[in-house]
């Protein structure tokens, strides 16, 4: 008997604080959220020693009178909900009523607050709390708003304090937390200093791109492309990084739902799936995505720090995010840009590409039969026919790049990457359909392979058949090829087959999730025309028309651009005409 006891209030407070207050960054997060809920338009955060010595958060929002200020430091005291039904679709950032009480219980805490200055009867209040105990309530003088000072965080919980990291590490965590919140409210200015040194200065802006630039610099901001997609009752908006700029490290992933930041590796993974066959395995693109869903389809009350949410239909949300990213990567406007980024293409060229049948307006009816067959039958209509100025107005430079005039500048196309994209999408269609017609050889090819390459042929025989390679074992280390694909007349079937088999034997594309995609990418890379091959004008025109009929024309399958844009505005700037 007597083994079960009721914990003292001080212990309860510290347990509660442990759920909300992990480090200085979590204190700053909670205080900023309170300031935003109070209607602040300017928030200033000052740290000393990364917050280990002191944290000060000041705002110009709606302050509190004395009675409310005293009540606010009690547990479960909040102005944001009044009943359990208010938790459904709650729009405020803070609503649990635990933040101030939890912070005050593990620090030396001061709060100064003043309600609206227009209220003649109002007066500013100053509270002093130490370890959760209210020490003093004073009248003070200050303008409308609230200031919270937190000194010696975890002074009464040494076991917790010793787990704090170095001031530099804690500072980085706080900068990250402030950045997330700064993306939520573009109409609010944020300033963060540490030991008097400015770390973040984000003034009020009207566009998300401007906020990204103020926090991470122009270089990152100009390498992003917009996302705007709706499906059912889910919307996805924001910016994603061009595939060519994605790197294995340094990725920034900011997710919001109904204006609330959250973390979800599955949503991030869904966004990465939208990059399928446009980035190199292992690259991690930066993303700033804001999801809009009905309030009753998402539960935000599943984590003490409100860092996680639960969707009613998670699969649909993830599928919508993947499709949103995929569609954003398709327009020509998603191609790399030389000089300052700009939406320089006409509105029609910024729409999503759609493969279809037929020919572009610039291709005369009589030219269909006489067009060279370097790139096979033209089965796709350019989704961006208006991107061409005139058929035949192309310049091949270094026998590798194609330069063409566009309505608003120049486009430079890498002929190998472009053909690689064309072949990849055609090959995927063949692998998922009835396969490709192959060309029978009068004299079969005999190819000698290593044992692991023979094994790779056996493991991928179905895929080889689907794209047109008819392979038969010949005994020993040899195979006989009776039929080959026919992607273009200059196709070197033997070399392509040997390279494809060698790539699979070495596991070169082993990081890709989908085996068919891996195979299609390998074949497209090896079968495409190479840099250094001279092309005729009609061959170039055929290649470009097929490229602009692809789903994702601006990107090859390895994370490199197929197109680089040079806007006319950039040319005029370089020549001093603007």
Descriptive report:
- This protein has 578 residues and is α+β, with helices and mostly antiparallel strands.
- The chain has four domains: 9-202, Histidine kinase-like ATPase, C-terminal domain (Heat Shock Protein 90, 2-Layer Sandwich), CATH 3.30.565.10; 208-329, Ribosomal Protein S5, domain 2, CATH 3.30.230.10; 333-420 and 533-574, 2-Layer Sandwich (formyl-coa transferase, domain 3), CATH 3.30.1540.20; 437-484 and 491-527, 2-Layer Sandwich (Ribosomal Protein S8, Chain: A, domain 1), CATH 3.30.1370.100.
- Helices cover 31% and strands 23% of the residues.
- It has 17 helices and 23 strands.
- The strands form five sheets. It has an eight-stranded mixed beta sheet with strand order 5-4-3-6-2-1-7-8. A five-stranded mixed beta sheet has the order 9-10-13-11-12, with helices on both faces. Strands 16-23-19-18-17 form a five-stranded mixed beta sheet.
- A hairpin with a 2-residue loop joins β11 (253-257) and β12 (260-262).
- α2 runs parallel beside α6 and α11 crosses α15 (515-527).
Number of strands: 23
**How much helical structure, as a percent, in the residues?**
25-40%
The CATH topology annotation of the largest domain reads as Heat Shock Protein 90
* Large-scale geometry: elongated
CATH superfamily of the largest domain: Histidine kinase-like ATPase, C-terminal domain
Low-confidence stretches: 81-87, 341-373, 376-382
The CATH class of the largest domain turns out to be Alpha Beta
What does the main sheet amount to?
8 strands, mixed
The average pLDDT value, as a whole number, equals: 82
Global structural class: alpha+beta
Order of adjacent strands in the largest pleated sheet: 5-4-3-6-2-1-7-8
Radius of gyration: 31 Å
* N-to-C CA distance: 87 Å
Name the beta content range: 15-25%
Helix tally equals 17
- Assign the CATH architecture of the largest domain: 2-Layer Sandwich
Summed up, the domain count is: 4
